[in-house]
Amino acid sequence: MKRLFILAGLILIGMSAAACDSSPQIATVTARAQATNAINMTLTAVQGGSGTPTQPFQPAQTVGPNGGSPLPLVTNIAGGTVIPNQPSTRSATTVVTAIGTDAVVQPPVLTPAGAASQTAAAPAGTPIPTFTQTAPPRPTDPATRAATLNASTPTITPTANGMMGKADSAKFIRSAPDQGAPQPTITPTLNSILATVAAARTLAAQAPTATPIPVVTGPKIWFDHATIYSLYVRSFRDSNGDGAGDLQGVIDGLDYIQSLGVDTLWLLPIFKSPSVHGYDTTDYDTVNPDYGTNEDLFRLIKEVHKRGMYILLDYVVNHTSDQHPYFKDAFGNPASAYSDYYLWSNAEHTQYSTFAGVQSMPKLNYDSPKVVQFATAIALHWADPNGDGNPSDGVDGYRCDVANGPYKAFWESLRAALDKLNPKTVLLGELFVQTPQDMQGYLGGGRLDAAFDFPLFIRMTGSWEKDNDGVFSGAGNLPLALSLARNPEAFYPPEARLVRFIGNHDTNRIMSDVGGDLRRAKVAALWLMTNPGPVMLYYGDEIGMKGDKCNAPDYDACRREPLDWYAGLSGPGQTSWFRHNNAPNDGVSIEEEEGSANEYNQDQISLLTFYRKLGKLRAELKTRGRNWELAELSGAAAGLYALKQWDADKVTLVFINFSNTKFTGTLDPALTTINGQSVSAFIRSDLSAAFGLLAGPIWTLEPGGFLVFAPPPEH
Q1: Angle, vertex CA 46, rays to CA 44 and CA 47, nearest 5
Q2: Angle 505-527-634 from CA coordinates, rounded to 5°
């Protein structure tokens, strides 16, 4: 799928350390994408001010292409924020002007697109130096571009206990053409406030015309904008009162699931297993009796399809249980017919390779053709359970556990076999890795159709076993994270689908990750549900359930706690097999969050209500999800996230303040211009949390604040 990327320049008026703490900083961001429909984007933000938090984002670090020295930096003589002269689409002369001292900054007015900029006035006698440099051309071939990005990929070093370290390096920030963007008014005063401007202003002609976005077709198009609900059956809903969730409970809960805007289910392992988690399978042909019967699964598949939804099963074939009949026969028996199914470390077949050092999970041997045939047969069976060649009674795909365990050639052969049976089937890989390079070779090329975007997830949340260290909690590096989101073609084949998510059954829950901050949890929800492409929501996150990894023996059970349906933790369907964070009448349950105290006050509506609103917005965005841009911001604006999506006559803008600092700004009308025609865009008060929105064109975003400009919802 073709994506359009914003190339942004930055104008920043900064302050010295000697400046008064109550004085503001203004960052004006002008962005232009390489596309016919992409317009100048001006975001003016006031950072700082009396009463605001004092933890500003630091300017992004810069590195040169191919790991070389940093590119030339254009700075001001006062030592303010710097902006790198980065390679742009074409060579251009860049002029940067630094404003002198004795100035305060006033908010700019809302200026029509293309209007002449306001003049920045400096006090009489203040020298205004001008620097001129020539920016080299940006590499156009994919190999060179990928090498440029790869050179600045962060190094993430695991700690002794396996938790990843915080990624705090940054990729380069590219400047882009800026023609006629509104500038702030600078008024001289007697205060000796040190204010500077460092702005990359391109004087080249029009940006190059973009190639039209191709219409995406094919049997797997249903997955391109899927909204997936990851569901642990044991914890979801109990239909028979034994305390454990079951497949009939999933059927009973389909109305609730659909109320979130979900169109795809992913069931964590449901087949026979000696454990509660199910990732050590003993029988791939039989549903775990705790969850019901095979007939229950068939009925669930039928009910899901009846609603126009899809269903994925967890496909665990990197290893089996040590209680699997094949392993039990082969253990200590080199003459066993299943001897070559596993990876033995001694001649007696009493020592073997395991997954993650867990003795109960022996790894399968994919050098054996028998194992390839065995694993392929499992997938084909559940894609067409009755074997009649009609896959309508089968599942729609698989979430492939530890997808980097089996050889890449296995996924290629499995992909071919499934395509022959049902070309709509999707293979979604779990590649739990830290960099895009570690995912290369698995995606596309007739192998995996999609993969969870773990590299981006790690940069947005920080460590998956540590809280309050990621972008969502205001502590991460947003420009670094977005460098991955903005440039997927540099790392992945064009047919690859990246599934975005904010947590899963192996990670700390998002509400824990943001320290229980409801506003931050809503920020994460908005980011997730407005992402172009497929996304995954982990059950319980929609009501703000908490969950960090427990100590032995519970471990991940604390992240897979029963979904809290009722205020009192009891009632029809409530599961009760485990309890750690859930407490009665704590405000975290479906019953307590149904409805809304104030539909248009985001501080008052529940997280569940907000997710349902986002589900409806996401359905609207599917019609224009193939045209999108992400702003590229730095310095004072590095904590701001700006996304634009549009089609022929509609536009949606999403602004999120991930930082710990307040921002005030205006909206450039050019953002709502499509093909030269102005289209309506309204502040969606049902989806916005400005927390201090002002009258007129000026708005304020507190830390964790967000604004959505979009057409009114269609009824």
Answers
A1: 130
A2: 120
Name the segment(s) of the chain with CATH classification 3.20.20.80. 222-315+368-616
Task: Please choose, from the candidates 316, 248, 241, 251, the residue with its C-alpha nearest in 3D space to the C-alpha of residue 278.
Answer: 316
Active site residue 467: no
Contacts of 160 (CB under 8 A, 6+ apart): none
Residue from 344, 336, 379, 337 nearest 365 by CA: 344
Catalytic, out of 263, 430, 449, 629:
430
CA distance linking residue 249 with residue 574, whole number of Å: 10
Average pLDDT over residues 248-271: 98
Q: DSSP strand E in 87-155: where?
A: 92-97, 103-106, 130-135
Tokens linked to 122: 């400096």
Q: Are strands 677-678 and 673-674 parallel, antiparallel or unpaired?
A: antiparallel
- Distance, in Å, from the CA atom of 310 to the CA atom of 313, rounded to the nearest integer, reads 10
184 Cβ neighbours under 8 A, 6+ residues apart:
11, 13, 26, 28, 44, 105, 106, 107, 108, 118, 120
What's the CA gap between 630 and 646, in Å, rounded?
12
Q: How far apart are CA 421 and CA 407, in angstroms?
A: 22
Just give the CATH number of 222-315+368-616.
3.20.20.80
The one catalytic residue among 246, 296, 401, 513: 401
Greater model confidence, 560 or 622: 560
373 within 8 A of 401, measured Cβ to Cβ: no
Residue of 637, 636, 638, 674 lying closest to 653 (CA atoms): 674
Give the C-alpha separation, 630 to 621, whole Å.
15
CB atoms under 10 Å from CB of 155, counted, come to 9
More confident residue, 671 or 628: 628
SS3 string, 519-580, reads HHHHHHHHHHHCCCCCEEEECCHHHCCCCCCCCCCCHHHHHCCCCCCCCCCCCCCCCCCCCC
Q: pLDDT tens across 152-202, in order?
A: 333 322 222 222 222 222 221 222 222 333 333 322 222 222 221 222 222
Q: What is the domain class of 319-363 according to CATH?
A: alpha beta
**Is residue 168 among the annotated active site residues?**
no
430-461 CB burial, b ≥16 within 10 A, e <16: bbbbbbbeebbebbbeebbbbbbbbbbbbbbb
pTM of the entire predicted model: 0.74
Residue 509 DSSP code: -
Tell me if 499 sits within 8 A of 462, measured CB to CB: no
Classify residue 163 as exposed, middle or buried by CB count within 10 Å of its CB (0-12, 13-18, 19+). middle
